[in-house]
Amino acid sequence: xxxxxxxxxxxxxxxxxxxxxxxxxxxxxxxxxxxxxxxxxxxxxxxxxxxxxxxxxxxxxxxxxxxxxxxxxxxxxxxxxxxxxxxxxxxxxxxxxxxxxxxxxxxxxxxxxxxxxxxxxxxxxxxxxxxxxxxxxxxxxxxxxxxxxxxxxxxxxxxxxxxxxxxxxxxxxxxxxxxxxxxxxxxxxxxxxxxxxxxxxxxxxxxxxxxxxxxxxxxxxxxxxxxxxxxxxxxxxxxxxxxxxxxxxxxxxxxxxxxxxxxxxxxxxxxxxxxxxxxxxxxxxxxxxxxxxxxxxxxxxxxxxxxxxxxxxxxxxxxxxxxxx
Length: 325
Prior knowledge:
By secondary structure, this protein is mainly beta.
């Protein structure tokens, strides 16, 4: 008799805190996936898009930090407005700008300007260089063919042309996404091809008869393979990892022999918080010591297993903040 009474009291005592916990979970949104359109990652895109008629404003800030030595910092800003044209088609416009401080950052100890400032020349081989630049305006279109919520895997196609005073660029992506455990775990993969034209000044040390001796458009292709996974660790919070394999080529025909110039690998953690109408995303990537310089005699731009060619640095930090309307 007394044992039965004890069990009854235990169930009653447990029921109240469980009920209270259920109310808290429901109120805070625990167990719910990220809001549609929120980027879970810093560098890897998912197939989640804004619903038709929704608008979102985002501010990006990316730090590219550290070279072989000296001082090296580049901060790239992107101000973006996205709009859902349909549930499966999203358009966005970006303003892209950057500023930098570098000094004696090259593998040889000389000052080497970042790629985004490639049309500038330092006052001397060892002088500091400080610059600010509006790189250009870009428009992005993402079309989702398959959704990870209704199909076995999500599939989307992305295109982003950029036009600026000294830059022309076309970036294309194939985006894949697979959700597991009732959307608690999200895995995404990207294949990205970026083709760039940069207006460069003539090189006084180049062959006078060559194209490099006069002002010209420099051609380059970047092919990147990205993989990321993020797990919902608490109400509105995701934590995960991102991996990037970046391959650089000296022309637009990147599949031809002898056009590959650099190979690098980056990896690091990412964390995401999403509120009812806003989100914050922070990603840190570190270059792994497996780089290759395929264009220069060894070691070329590689030091300690990492490449420090124009478009590569030791660390990257990306912050995204967004608000929907």
